[in-house]
Design the sequence.
């Protein structure tokens, strides 16, 4: 099973601009950015509508649109903490979110206590699922059931196995 860590959020190209009706902003189109760079290079600053900072950024980084992250760092289990979550799930696929939180806090170089919602959200983002499966019936090992099992296999018919 191979896991790939996501690239830095800021370097991901934006697939499609968000709709303005939904509160999104499309920014300048790639063509407009190229025209603005050409006008700035030709000394025609009066024809350029973007700011000087935008022109400098496009000159340094290219004109392709980048994912809009709101200039806020991602807070939900990244880097070492994400790796520890993956390690925990490989070692303990049926472990609870509380156990995952304790594992991350215990084994990380910079401990942080996450919420159950943080763990669940990151597991969904990573594509982890919880498939219903059979589990060991721990009640089979109670003293009463162990005695019944021993009686069944070691005594004659009315109480044990039929011969």
Sequence:
């Amino acid at each position: 099973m191979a896991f790939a860590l996501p690239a830095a959020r800021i370097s991901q190209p934006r697939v499609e601009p968000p709709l303005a009706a939904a509160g999104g902003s499309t920014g300048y189109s790639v063509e407009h950015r190229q025209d603005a760079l050409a006008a700035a290079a030709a000394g025609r600053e009066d024809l350029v509508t973007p700011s000087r900072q935008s022109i400098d950024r496009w000159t340094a980084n290219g004109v392709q649109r980048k994912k809009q992250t709101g200039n806020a760092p991602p807070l939900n289990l990244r880097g070492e903490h994400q790796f520890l979550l993956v390690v925990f799930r490989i070692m303990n696929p049926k472990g609870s979110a509380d156990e995952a939180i304790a594992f991350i806090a215990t084994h990380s170089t910079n401990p942080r206590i996450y919420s159950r919602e943080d763990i669940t959200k990151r597991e969904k983002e990573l594509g982890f699922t919880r498939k219903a499966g059979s589990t060991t019936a721990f009640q089979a090992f109670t003293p009463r059931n162990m005695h019944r099992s021993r009686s069944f296999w070691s005594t004659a018919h009315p109480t044990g196995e039929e011969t």
Notes: The mean pLDDT is 78. The first helix runs from residue 30 to 41.
